[in-house]
Amino acid sequence: MQNECSKPDVCHERFSSYPQRKKHHLDNVFYTVQSFYFITIVTHKRKCLFGTVNNENTELTDEGKMVLSVYKELAKQMEKVIEPTVVVMPNHIHFVIFNNTDGKESVKDFVQQFKRLTTNCYIEGVKRKNWQPFDGRLWQRDYYDHMIRNQREFDYIVNYIYMNPQRWRYDLLNKDHESITDNVSETLNSLK
Q: Which residue, of 51, 84, 92, 125, has the fewest CB within 10 Å?
């Protein structure tokens, strides 16, 4: 019998609409379109649960290794994996996926399954392996996405993912970031 951590199935999260929330998704974009997408998913309250960055290298905890493993398995099963465009950081994950499902499945479906599977595996790790508990939920309610429109954007994003551990001190997701930070959205807008 497969355990919950090894078999993805569809999970539909309920999202309430909050008018004051910042939109992270593009208007008039159908996330079922065949395209490359840059995704960032952040832990709830930006809590560092997945490892540390030392000497510009990410050292993943068992929790971080689980997140990476679930991503790779789910992406492989759903034929979305783009190697080596994934990095797990202390409090977030960046990856590029290719949605090649011809409208049958959306990026949102992938993210929901990923969040559900990692949350269930994490809960199991808290119970059985004494992992650090999370506060209420593992992931933030939403996620960041960007449909990659051209080769320049793709190259920039792949490099950004690869360099993320080395640039951790400039990352806005790092609570101890330096005053000069990376502005990925601004750079991507200039590459359109």
A: 84
- pLDDT (0 to 100) of residue 104: 64
Print the domain residue range for 85.
Answer: 25-183
DSSP string, 171-188: -TTSTT--SS---HHHHH
Predicted local confidence at residue 13, as pLDDT: 36
Residue 104, domain member (yes or no): yes
Q: Has residue 96 been placed in a domain?
A: yes
User: For residue 38, what pLDDT is reported?
Assistant: 92
- 13 assigned to some structural domain: no
Regions of the chain with pLDDT less than 70: 1-34, 79-84, 100-105, 180-192
8 A C-beta contact, residue 121 and residue 70: yes
Distance CA 163, CA 160 (A): 5
Residue at 148 is within a domain: yes
- Does residue 165 sit in helix, strand or coil? coil
In angstroms, the CA 43 to CA 49 distance is 8
pLDDT at position 98:
81
CATH number where 132 lies: 3.30.70.1290
Q: How many structural domains compose the chain?
A: 1
Pairing mode, strands 35-42 and 92-99: antiparallel
Give, to the nearest 10 degrees, the angle between helix 107-129 and helix 62-77: 140
